[in-house]
Amino acid sequence: ARVMPTKGRRTVGAWCFVDLMGPMDAVEPDPLEVGPHPHIGLSTLTWLLEGEALHTDSLGTEQPIRPGQLNLMTAGHGIAHAELAAEPPFSGVQLWVAQPEATRHGEARFEHLDALPQVAIDHAEALVFVGALEGAASPARTDTELLGVDLQLRHGVTVVPTDPAFELAVVPLEGTVKVGEAIVEPGWIGLVPCGVDELPLEVQHGGGRALVLGGVPLGERIQMWWNFVARDRDEITEAYHHWRDRTDRFGAVPSTLERIEAPAPPWLAPPR
Ligand code: MN
To answer: Pick the residue with more confidence: 236 or 9?
Structure first.
């Protein structure tokens, strides 16, 4: 389920893509198997809920990942990677963060973090994978001010302290979450504008689980197409040509999976 971008909302802070992967309600889900493909101008965050996956990329990285760990890959000018899930059951969240002008033309990098801080808030346990909450700071490197927290919520109201300079998104993973007065179901996103210093989250008996994402508004107009985050069509066309023509911009991925070819951008399609 693609919960962001939506028609009305392209970014929250620099967060620009939120995808729920895996069974959720599928009876026999396909294993996650994503062959080599390129990225520019963004960081990808892989956050597993169950199962195990193997990340490989054109920096030469080969990194298994399990729930509670973070894979943070930053594309800059260009990177290519592949992902393979070990065994079902498998589920997780794929998140993208747009890089600001200051870093988006830079070097690619990859980080794996398996010691992330936890903090108890009211009726919740929070695992902080990006940014800081109540003194618990993630070591993950970011190019803009961001927050990314996975909350296990028990029955009752949990008030998450937040930075008024941040805009926020609540992404339910299990159970319905009441965000202030708004009811947010899994597959949907609860959006909270800047100016809030307390985020009340309520779940019913049986509890729930949700991500809270936030950040200072990006303040740059981005253009996204396929796996590329850029500022205009020319940049995307150039990246498309580099991948299609197998130049050394993206490099080789150590993977036996089949390479994913880019579709032609619609603005390059020949006139009928
Ligand atoms: Mn990818």
So the answer is: 236
The H or E element spanning position 158 is: strand 156-161
The answer to whether 100 touches 218, Cβ cutoff 8 Å, is yes
Structural tokens at position 208? 């729930």
Q: Enter the DSSP assignment of 40.
A: B
Report the separation in Å between the CA atom of 31 and the middle of ligand 1, taken as the mean of its atom positions: 16
Strand partners, 18: 4, 95
pLDDT in tens, 132-186: 999 999 999 999 999 999 999 999 999 999 999 999 999 999 999 999 999 999 9
Please tell me the number of Cα atoms within 13 Å of 257 on its side-chain side. 23
If you measure from the C-alpha of residue 166 to the centroid of ligand 1, how many angstroms do you get, rounded to a whole number?
Answer: 26
Cα 149–Cα 152–Cα 153 angle in degrees, nearest 5: 115
CA distances from 246 to 38, 80, 233, 256 (A): 11, 11, 20, 17
Q: How far is the CA of 82 from the centre of ligand 1 (A)?
A: 7
Question: Residue 62 Cα, ligand 1 centroid: separation in angstroms?
Answer: 15
At 133, is the secondary structure helix, strand, or coil? strand
The DSSP bridge pattern shows strands 208-215 and 146-153 to be: antiparallel
> Could you report the per-residue pLDDT of 98-119, keeping only the tens digit for each?
999 999 999 999 999 999 999 9
Assessment of whether the complete model's pTM goes beyond 0.90? yes
Kind plus residue range of the DSSP H or E element containing 55:
strand 53-57
Residues 14/218, Cβ–Cβ less than 8 Å: yes
Sequential DSSP letters for 240-267: HHHHHTT-TTT------SPPPPPPPPGG
The pLDDT tens digits of the residues spanning 8-37 come to 899 999 999 999 987 654 455 556 789 999
Among 28, 38, 4, 8, CA closest to 242: 38
